[in-house]
């Protein structure tokens, strides 16, 4: 049986993440009952699935290596974090052996096949063997929580019906306009598969996003594949001023939004956009978005004079907490 690697320093963990294709890290507490209960399951998986330089299992004591636990944003034990090619892709808190086993076995199978690994392409774009795409790298200690979005409750105001539905914003595939590795506005594929949204009567968009679990939102990645042709006043443009509200019971109207202070307002500059991936990162005041069951995202205005604002994808980066009962929005205290 292959032994797990006991981590004794930050440098050792960093080297391991760089040398092995997949790394599973068990952050545990020697005195924690749940940590003790799942330890045999973890060791058994390590014995079955460890592969030299492909799949490595490691353990970090949050008592002896408190600095490492803090730097990887681990506050509860046991916590399991899974990396592919030095990029965090999954994070589990708690001792659910079936969930952990299924996740690791799936990734281990991918590691055995060519092209199944996680890759980082030009301009920080990343994808996996499961077809997931995002336009920027993940901050250390956090994961993509977009799959916690409840698609049944999505609501987008002022969207042009000639383009994709609101659900397209959360599609995990690469935007059609980026299929050739760079922004491509014209072409048959792009025109026939309009997998983005555009505003209708003016450049404002109002989006309501409910979640199936309470989440901590650290960053929002927004992708907007525009042409950059300043001479075309009718070409769609990128969002500029964005107001964000946490934990509203429903979408806001445009007039209502003027009377309710936003949880945070962000103004994007042209330099905030990565031109390879057409993506900007909205870094939130994390303390304001700790226990979120819904977000309202209001694009108040856009770059330039065009009345068309375009958004191709949205990704939410953070942590997933306790699942909610479907259809139930419990009131959570928050600052208005």
Quickly describe the structure.
With 336 residues, the chain is α+β, with helices and mostly antiparallel strands. Helix content is 18%, strand content 30%.
Produce the secondary structure layout.
Elements: E1 5-6, H1 10-19, E2 22-28, H2 33-49, E3 55-61, H3 66-71, E4 79-84, E5 87-93, H4 97-111, E6 119-120, E7 126-127, E8 133-134, E9 143-144, E10 155-157, H5 188-192, E11 197-198, E12 205-223, E13 239-246, H6 254-259, E14 264-267, E15 279-283, E16 292-302, E17 310-311, E18 313-323
Architecture overview:
- This protein is of the alpha+beta class and 336 residues long.
- The chain has six helices and 18 strands.
- The strands form four sheets. Strands 9, 10, 12, 13, 14, 15, 16 and 18 form an eight-stranded antiparallel β-sheet that branches.
- InterPro entries: Galactose-bd-like_sf, PITH_dom, PITH_dom_sf, Thioredoxin-like_sf, Thioredoxin_domain.
- Residues 1-109 form the Thioredoxin domain.
Rg to the nearest angstrom?
21 Å
Level of helix content? 10-25%
The CATH architecture designation of the largest domain is Sandwich
Mean pLDDT: 84
Low-confidence stretches: 114-123, 181-190, 327-336
What is the top-level CATH class of the largest domain? Mainly Beta
Oligomer: single chain
- What is the tally of beta strands? 18
Query: What is the succession of H and E elements?
Result: EHEHEHEEHEEEEEHEEEHEEEEE
Alpha-beta content class: alpha+beta
Total of DSSP H or I helical runs spanning 4+ residues? 6
Measured between the Cα atoms of the first and last residue, the distance is: 55 Å
Q: How would you characterize the largest beta sheet?
A: 8 strands, antiparallel
Which topology of the largest domain does CATH recognise? Jelly Rolls
User: What is the number of domains?
Assistant: 2
As a percent range, the share of strand residues is 25-35%
Q: Spell out the CATH superfamily of the largest domain.
A: PITH domain
Q: What is the global morphology?
A: elongated
């Amino acid at each position: 049986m292959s032994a797990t690697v006991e981590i004794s320093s930050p440098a050792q963990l960093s080297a391991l993440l760089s040398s092995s294709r997949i790394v599973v890290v068990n952050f545990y507490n020697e005195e924690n009952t749940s940590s003790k209960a799942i330890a045999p399951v973890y060791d058994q998986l390590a014995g079955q699935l460890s592969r030299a330089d492909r799949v490595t299992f490691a353990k970090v004591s949050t008592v002896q290596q408190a600095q490492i636990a803090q730097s990887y944003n681990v506050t509860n034990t046991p916590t399991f974090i899974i990396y592919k090619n030095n990029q965090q892709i999954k994070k589990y808190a708690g001792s659910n052996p079936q969930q952990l086993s299924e996740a690791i076995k799936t990734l281990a199978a991918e590691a055995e096949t060519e092209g199944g690994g996680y890759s980082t392409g030009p301009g920080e774009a990343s994808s996996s063997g499961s077809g997931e795409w995002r336009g920027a790298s993940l901050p250390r200690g956090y994961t993509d929580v977009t799959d916690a979005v409840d698609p049944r409750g999505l609501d987008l105001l002022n969207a042009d019906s000639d383009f994709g539905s609101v659900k397209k914003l959360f599609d995990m595939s690469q935007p059609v306009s980026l299929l050739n590795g760079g922004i491509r506005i014209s072409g048959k594929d792009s025109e026939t598969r309009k997998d983005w949204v555009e505003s209708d009567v003016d450049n404002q968009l109002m989006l309501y996003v409910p979640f199936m679990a309470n989440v901590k939102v650290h960053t929002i990645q927004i992708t907007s594949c525009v042409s950059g042709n300043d001479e075309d006043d009718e070409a769609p443009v990128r969002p500029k001023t964005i107001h964000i509200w946490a934990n509203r019971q429903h979408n806001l109207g445009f007039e209502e939004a003027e009377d309710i202070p936003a949880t945070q307002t962000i103004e994007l500059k042209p330099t905030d956009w990565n031109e390879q991936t057409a993506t900007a990162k909205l870094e939130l005041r994390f303390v304001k978005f700790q226990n979120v069951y819904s977000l309202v995202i209001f694009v108040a205005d856009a770059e330039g004079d065009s009345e068309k604002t375009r958004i191709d994808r949205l990704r939410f980066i953070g942590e997933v907490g306790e699942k909610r009962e479907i259809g139930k929005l419990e009131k959570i205290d928050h600052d208005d």
